[in-house]
Design goal:
By secondary structure, this protein is α+β, with helices and mostly antiparallel strands. The chain has 6 helices and 5 strands; from the N terminus they run αααααβββββα. Helix 2 packs antiparallel against helix 3. It binds zinc ion.
Amino acid sequence: MNRTLQQVLVNLSHGWSIFVWGFALLCVIAGIFTQRYLNRSRDSGDVVKLRRAKTAYVLTASCFVVSIVALGLSILHVGCSYTTQDEQKCRSNLKQLALAIHLYAQDYDERMPPAKRWAELIAPKYVSADSHKCPSATTPFSFGMNAAVAGASWSELANEDYTKIPVLFEADAPVLSFSGGMKDVAKFRHTGRSNITFMDGHDKIYPYTLLDTLSWKPKIESPEQKSKP
Ligand SMILES: [Zn+2]
């Protein structure tokens, strides 16, 4: 399916968009009834009744227009400030965790922590334990480590583009040291987007439709392999 269409569908199926869909549907039903009421009022010739029917019709039509505008905004990805604050807090926490992984690696021969214990090994020595939470998450823990690079060193990935290799990502994590890959990214937490940190240290919020453009499984080579012609 076309990426843009996928993104639009995700936006329209998320949280408050569903509420707006329901409101728009109610407006259409109310519009049908008020239209009939308006027709009957015209036929009756009662001026007061006709005025009431017109007012009801205009109100219903206005609500419908407002809900269509709201749906349009959701397609264009305009979130409310509440969501933005959550995203910022989440991103800040994920940055702290990414920094902790770099600090850990400095102490352990430039090697990242292993997949099964990554979170336990970086907290509380390198980061506070409460950084493991995204405000929008409903699961006990909020982040996961890319299992394909956990335990690897930067030198083993020297032939790869660090800016494309995810290290930490948002996940519906049942355990603190959760690890996985692209299929485990929490897709609906921030309106179809997810905070991700990369091996070069930068971080970005990614739409899930673009996740497959990243290097989730880079080729890990030992220094001996690299020295071969
Ligand atoms: Zn988050």
